[in-house]
Each structure stands twice: as structure tokens, then as C-alpha cells.
Amino acid sequence: MKALRNLLDNIKPHVQKGGKFEKFHSTFDAFETLLFVPNHTNKNGVHVRDSIDMKRTMALVVKSLIPALLFGIWNTGYQHFLAMGVDASFWAEVGHGALKVLPIVIVSYGVGLGVEFIFAQYRGHEVQEGFLVSGMLIPLVLPVDVPLWMVAVATVFAVVIGKEVFGGTGMNIWNPALIARAFLFFAYPSKMSGDKVWISGLTNGEGVVDGFSGATSLGEAASGAAPSHSILESFIGMIPGSIGETSTLAILIGAAILIYTGIGSWKIMVSVFAGGYVMGLIFNLWGANALMQVDAIHHICLGGFAFGAVFMATDPVSATRTERGKWIYGFLIGFLAIMVRVFNPAYPEGVMLAILLMNTFAPLIDHYVVQGNIKRRLKRANVAA
Amino acid sequence: MSEVIKIKKGLDIQLAGKAEKVFGQTDLPELFAIRPTDFHGVIPKMAIKVGDKVKAGTVLFFDKNRPEIKFVSPVSGELTAVNRGERRKILEVVVKSDGTDDKEQFGAANAADLSKEQIVEKLQAAGLWSFIRKRPYDIIANASETPKAFFISGFDSAPLAPDMDFILSGQEAALQAGIDVIKQLCDNVHVGVQNDAASKVFNNLKGVKLHSFAGSHPAGNVGVQIHHAMPINKGEVVWVAQPQEIVAIGKLFTEGVYDASRIVVLAGSEVEKRAYYRTKLGASISTLVADNVKKDDTLRYISGNVLSGTQIEEDGYIGAYHSQVTVIPEGDYYEFMGWALPGFGKFSVSRTFFSWMCKKKEYRLDANMHGGLRSFVVSGQYDKVLPMDILPEFLFKAILVEDIDKMEQLGIYELAEEDVALCEFVCTSKQPLQATLRKGIDLMIKELS
Predict the structure, then answer these.
(1) What ipTM was assigned to the predicted interfaces of this complex?
(2) Which of A90, A195, B86, B330 is the most buried (most CB within 10 A)?
(3) Which of A49, A168, A319 comes nearest B369 by C-beta?
(4) Residue that finishes a domain, picked among B187, B221, B255
């Protein structure tokens, strides 16, 4: 560690103002702060500060995504061998899954961080840690057979259009990971939806068992059949779907970590689930077609609903910032997600669209909460006057 | 006694180094200084020259814009230095004490016999007016304004803060005299007391309305107390002062002299003998900390508390409004992979460090920033530690874009820097919130005057 510190101290003068490699200051700074929490002390204000910082917060969100990632890796292998009709060991399944999923993760982080570094250097700022989480979210919401070049293009789109043009971390209106997903969904729909994309190898048609359909439960319901997977199977996640979204159980473990450490907003999570459940119940009462008849609880375990509720909707920058607003925001996300899903089966990704829509309306919700605060203050002044 | 007001939001930082309720013995230092920078908005103009002899109460400098507001010497001796900084800004006016306690005579008087204008004049001449501040803006009060109330916080809830009851025991008569003077200026005097402490001093005061508060810091902040007892609306003014300052006001009228005595607590994890010390306003801390602090790390000396105090040198001076000196480690070290390690000993409001598993009774915090400046990302942090009906993040953003109307609508009139100090403490993005608020307040003063 001492040697590392000395090495960094030796390089430092060259990357600071006036040094030969001044242009790489942001990059050097990013690596230095990755290895060492800086030695800056508080000036001009409080003298002591909470030990938490942005890196810690983002690292914790990534840690809470690990259960979903690990389950997704295993499930990818499991679904693949199931489709092939081949008996495989647990480790074979994990191995297959890892081989498919990890390259997507590597491309996502590599491309995303690269773009972030370039922008930070261009602006002369420190690299902010926003992409640490987005880089993990993007792979987890994609179908496993997505071509790597598409992942790269979508990541560039998400970072540049979804975040940097607004001013970088903390300034974006929409959730960058969902921007990536939406980009792919609308630009390359054949690769993002349908029956074949959710299981590794199906698009290539390699040796699939006769009559096997790779349809997700939502796809089945859309065609008028009841979902073939039970609620329990959907809850545990041994169903086809995007890499990280299938296991409600793994997602809930992540939710528990986020809520306990105080990083994720429980208000948003609870209200999204509540909104979705209410909409599901309304549709159950209506019951006009197979999609509507899907049990409200089952809806929550299907598709990207749970993943969106816990990891996407809770992104603090794109969500509402007021505590009261979070209830409204979350409820509407859940409500609209199930509505989109049922009314328009062509958009099974109702959650993604609902979240992006509510991201757009979040400032409006906040505006009204702020106005409420202002009016209370004015009323008090008028009463006193 | 009115009912107890429960302050539900806030945070008590369990800082190591609390002082026991005993008095320490130390000689008074040779040097004393008044820092014009302690008084927001004051542009000092010297009244005397270096080398002039002074008594306790002699005018050193006054406010250029309001010459009736004078600042006086705490001790008798000689004006030995005027330390300036950038652009010749006066940072410290230093007086060397001669050991005698020669005092200027202002004449004792019964406040009830004097008119309001006469009382104001007397306080201004003796340099005591600068201790009456106003809310909004937290600057020296304007004598031409009529306040709707005078509010005094009877306890300090900041980390390692002194026990006001302990400091004031024995000075009840002077305190009551001060209250009587204040009542001539503004009839409506309120005192906020701590619910669970047996506050004998304040319970026996005559002519004041008591408010009882229970809860964590910042329950002791006068701004928070005013918000819960009688919130300030646009156009209203409340005057505030601290208990020891009221005692000095009392003594001016009963004895006719400027008494600069203060009791100050020396606390902090790096102090060996932590105790209360009898000293005078503006004293150098050199005698307090000599051979009394741990010398293994670089140290940070703070006049005031760790949240809103001012950093001073090892031989620096106690601030005009402070009754506390805190010494903590500087913390200018690099920490390898600090953000990824379990952090068993790290203090955090979040539970992202494993310190929640083995909660320590008290923490030895240092001045390390623990990160770098970032944009606002996490939401809802500030609201948890600001016990007022204010949306802090929106107010800070309004200040940053200099939206005067929004700042007014969102409640900037009710805040002083000490009220948002905890918000700055918990901020994940390491934003300089107190400085931002001060910028906002200065902008309001400029635009609305």
C-alpha cells in the first residue's frame, strides 16, 4: 500500500496543472480515488462529516444486484439446457450462463466508463460514480442473446444522450439504464421481444427439443393461454426472461439490503408494488381476456416488474425528490406498468415505459409538493398578519 | 410551563471527548483578539491605532456602515496588532493584556428608569449591542426594527457543547438583571429549555415565557426553537442572544462596566484534561491547550463546535459567539480502498458500514472529508436532520440559481447556518451547504435592503 501510494504521489505532479499529462487528470484522479479515499479535509463549514460517500453508496447498490446477477447466470444455463432437453450439472449451467452473461457486463462497463472518462476529462471534472450502477443494470435487463455490439451502442446512447447532455451524474431526467433498454427495444425490436430471445441459443435454433417454446409467461398470456409457470416458479425465477429480472426472490434480497442500509427508498418500492397489485386486482375483476385473468400477485413476479420496482424506480436522481412525491410516483409506476402490459401486449415491457413516463412527470409531482409547502408558509404569514 | 415540544428529526453525534463538569485551572493568556469576521456583514473601521492603551470596554473598531455599533476590548492593556488578510481585510484585532483589570465606566443604571433609546445607546456604547442578533439573516440586530419577540435558547445541543446550567449557576442575579433590560427593549421574552434537564436557572427566571424541548440536536438551536414556538414569517423580526451574553448585559446595568468574562468548555478527543475554564471573550487558546493535547497527529483546533465552529490556529482566539473549544484530529490521510472496506469503526447515519454491528458509545471523528464533492444525487437525507417544515434540498437549489422569490417562499428567513450544519454533516455528495446558505442570506440582504 505504501508502495502504491508512493507510485501515485510520483505520478501526480505530471497530471496536475502545468504537468505534461495535464489532459489525463480526470482519468488519474478516477483511479486514484478508486484506490484511496482522498486526504481532503473539510474546509469552510462542518469540521466532521459522515463517513459515507458516493462510491460507497454506488458500490452498495451494485452489491445488492449481485443476488440477481448470480441467479441470472445460473438461470441462463438452466433454461438453455432445459430447452435442449439435455441434463446438465449445476456447474455446467453456471458455466454456460457465465460465458453468456459476463461478456455483456464487461462490454457495458468498459464502454460506459470509457465514455464517462472522456466526458469528465473534456469538462475538467472528476469522474462521478453514477455509471457504477448503470453499468450493472444494463446487462440485467437485456435478453441473454443480445449481440454485444448492440450492448455497446445502447450504452453509448444511454451515457451520452441519457446523462451527459444534461450535465452528467445527478442531472439526468431519465434512468440511463432504461434509456439503453428503450433504445434497443425501439431500434432492434426483433432482438428484444418475441418468443426466441429469452433463452440462450434459441435464436440460433440449435437442437431445441420439439415443441419447446421459449415464450415468457406474459407472451403466453398475450396469445390467450394461461401462463404455464406457476406463481412459485415465477417467484423463484426459473422462468425465461431478461438476465436479471426473473427471480423475484433474488430481487427481494437486494431490496432488503437497500432498505436496511438506507440507500434505497422503501417508499418507492412499496408504492410500486402496491400500485401494480391494485391494477392487477382491477383487471382480475374485469377478466376480459387471459392477460387480465393473470393473478395480481403473479403479475408482480412476471416480467421486469419486481426488478423495475426495486432497482430502476428507486434511482434517486430520476425519481421524485420529495418524500410525499415518492408515494405518488411509485404508485403510478406500478399502476401504469400493469396497465400497459395488459392493454398493449406488444409492449410487454410495460414497467420500463411506465418508469420512463413517470421519470418525465417526477419534476411535476415535486413541483406540487413544493407548492404545498410554500402555501402552508404563506397561509401562516397571512394568519399572523 | 408550557407542554413539551418534541423535536422528532435530528441527530446526536456521539463524539468522544466530553468534558466533565469541573473547572480547570489555567492562567489567563497574554493575548486577546476580537475577529471582525465573526460578525457577518460588518465592515470594520479602526477607532484607535496600534500601540494605544485600552481599558476593558474601550472601543477598538466600529461598523463602517453603522458607526453606532461598536466593538470593544475585553481586557485592559495595549492594542498590539491588527492582523490583515487578502485585500487588507481585518482578520484579528489583538490586545495585549497588562494584567490589571482596568474597566471603562459606563455608569450603573436601572433599566426600568430608562427609555428604550437610552438603553440601546448604552448597549451600543459598551459594545454589547453586537451580541443581540436578529432572525432572519442571523446578523447584528437593527435597533430601528421592532421585533415580535426576544428568544433565548437555554441549552446547547451541539456535540460536546457546554452545559448551560452548570455555566450559569451562581450568575442567576446577573441573568435576571439582563432579562429585565431585555424586557425594556422587547416585552415578549421567551426561553427554550431542555425537557429532561433539571434546569433550575431558567425555571426561576421572572418575566419570561418558557418553552420545553425534547429531542436530539438541533433542538438547542434557537432557530429551531423559534420555528416550533412562533415561526417567523415574511416581514417579522425576532431578536436572539445567548445566556452568557445576557449575563454581560445584566452586569453592564448593575455594575456599570463591560464584563468580558466567559466560561468556556475545552472538549474533544485530542484534549487530555477536558474541563470548563473561566476566561474572557476573545482569549487566545494557547494557555488552554499548552501541554494539554495529544501530539501524535496533526490537530484541528476549532472555536465553537465541530458542526458550525471556526478553525483556528494553536494560538488562535475564541470567537465572539462561542463558549466552546474543540480539538480533533485533522485526518489528512489517504485510506486504501476505504469505500469498500467493512469499516467497523466508522460513524455513519446510513448502515453502509459494519459499525452498526458493534455500535460504539462514542466516536473519535476527524476532519477528513471521506470522499469528494459531487452533484446532489441522494434524496431525502437532509430532511431527516432538519426538524422544520422546510424542504432543504429545494431551498439550496434555489440559492444556487439565485432565485430570490423561491428562496423567500421556501423559508430562508427561518434558517441560519447552524441549523443546516447537520444537513452538511450527512450529505453524501459533500456539498458545502452552510456556505451556500450564507451566500443565499447575503443575497437576500443585498436584494431586499
Answers:
(1) 0.92
(2) B330
(3) A49
(4) B255
Q: Which three cell numbers stand for residue B384?
A: 431527516
- Structural element, H or E, at residue A302: none
Say which CATH number the domain at A316 has: 1.10.3430
Are B351 and A260 a contacting pair, CB within 8 Å? yes
pLDDT digits (tens, 9 = 90+) for B165-203: 999 998 999 999 999 999 999 999 999 998 766 677 888
Q: Is residue B401 within 8 angstroms of chain A, CB to CB? A: no
Domain extent at residue B423: 382-448
Separation in Å, CA B201 to CA B168, B198, B206, B446: 7, 9, 11, 40
Asked whether residue A40 is assigned to any structural domain, the reply reads: no
Of the candidates B220, B196, B193, the residue with the CA atom closest to the CA atom of residue B204? B193
- Give B39's DSSP letter: S
Determine the residue among B377, B396, B400, B427 to mutate to test chain A binding: the one whose Cβ has the most chain A Cβ atoms within 10 Å. B377
What are the CA-CA distances from residue B311 to residues A42, A184, A382, B304, B373 (Å)? 10, 54, 42, 9, 20
Q: What grid cell was written down for B240?
A: 436572539
A119 falls within a domain: yes
Among candidate residues A252, A279, A244, the one with its CA nearest the CA of residue A350: A279
CA distances from A63 to A57, A251, B352, B353 (A): 10, 12, 11, 13
For residue A18, what are the contacts with CB-CB under 8 A and spacing of at least 6?
Answer: none
For residue A45, tell me if it sits in a domain: no
pTM assigned to the model: 0.92
> pLDDT averaged over chain B?
91
Tell whether A75 is covered by a domain.
yes
How much is the pLDDT for B327? 95
Closest CA relative to residue A216, chosen from A227, A225, A204: A227
Q: Which residues 161-200 in chain A show a CB within 8 A of chain B?
A: 167-171
Q: Judging by beta carbons within 10 Å of its beta carbon (0-12, 13-18, 19+), is residue B24 exposed, middle or buried?
A: middle
Helix axes A323-343, A266-286, angle to 10 degrees: 30
Instruction: Tell whether B28 and B163 lie within a shared domain.
Output: yes
Q: Do B300 and A381 touch (CB under 8 A)?
A: no
Q: Which among B302, B306, B370, B397 is the top mutation candidate for probing chain A, defined by the most A β-carbons within 10 Å of its own β-carbon?
A: B370
- DSSP symbols for B202-220: HHT-SS-EEEEEEESTTTT
Distance of CA B154 to the CA centre of its chain: 13
Measured between beta carbons, the chain A residues lying within 8 angstroms of B337 are 35-37
What are the chain B neighbours of A370 within 8 Å (beta carbons)?
391, 394, 410
- Sheet of B31-34: strands edge to edge? B31-34, B90-97, B77-84, B53-54
Contact A170 B379 (CB under 8 A): no
- Rounded to whole angstroms, how far apart are CA atoms B132 and B117? 15
| Diameter over CA atoms, chain A | 82
- Interatomic CA distance for residues A246 and A232, integer angstroms: 12
Task: State phi, psi for B99 to the nearest 5 degrees.
Answer: 85, -30
Which residues lie closer than 8 Å to B302 by C-beta, 6 or more apart? A47, B268, B309, B310, B311, B312, B325, B326, B327, B328
Q: For chain A, where are the E strands, in sequence order?
A: 36-37
Q: What total of structural domains would you count in chain A?
A: 1
B422-438 residue pLDDT tens: 999 999 999 999 999 99
Tell me, what's the pLDDT at B385? 95
Q: Are strands B209-215 and B189-194 parallel, antiparallel or unpaired?
A: parallel
Rounded Cα gap, residues A144 and B69, in angstroms: 74
Instruction: Give the Cα-Cα-Cα angle B85, B307, B75 (nearest 5 degrees).
Output: 55
> Are A48 and B330 a contacting pair at CB < 8 A?
no
A363 touches chain B (CB under 8 A): no
B237, B255, B273 - which closes a domain: B255
**B389 and B246 share one domain:** no
